[in-house]
């Protein structure tokens, strides 16, 4: 992902009505009512109220109130899990910077680290996929995605087929990481003329990871702080010349997602 920061918007964010904002002006009720977060909650409660009234008419008041509460909770959970959001982008970019700092030292040892590489999704080269860090070195080629997760929720696996963060299954995240790596492998292999495998992996920051490296759905999963060790501990499979050749091709086949 891109190593960019999104600035805070709104100098008076978080200030109660009638209190001075960050720019020295006084917030008004109009400012508060224009708050997108407040508008979302108003809409959420309004919809839930309508649903609750309908159920109360058909059944009884108790059922109506229960259904309305469930509707609010369900919509809140759905919005919290939706991606992307500004807050999610900020968390992700922080995780990417942590991984980038770890990988920086590898360049002196003959490794090539390419950040935020675009992945074409169709025959016309249109892309909405992105590899956070494409790493080429003596032990192979890797597509690393950096993730910042809530440290309060545990991480666990089930039979190397499912990855959970608290109650949330991360199948889609693993499938996306694997798809990105497969696309990178396809493009590099086509350009060079020989098979170039690309290993997908996810570096997780935040919660404790109860293993060193776990392969789930063919994706390596590990604690973000061990990313450098993860790359270096594997056996060497590429010569220095091969590393240079693959890196040269990768810069063209997988261009930067955010060109300057």
From TrEMBL:
Domain NERD, first and last residues per copy: 91-211
Record has Membrane as a keyword: yes
Region annotation (Disordered) ranges: 1-30
Membrane-spanning segments: 41-74
InterPro entries per record: NERD
Key words, A-Z: Membrane, Transmembrane, Transmembrane helix
Protein name: NERD domain-containing protein
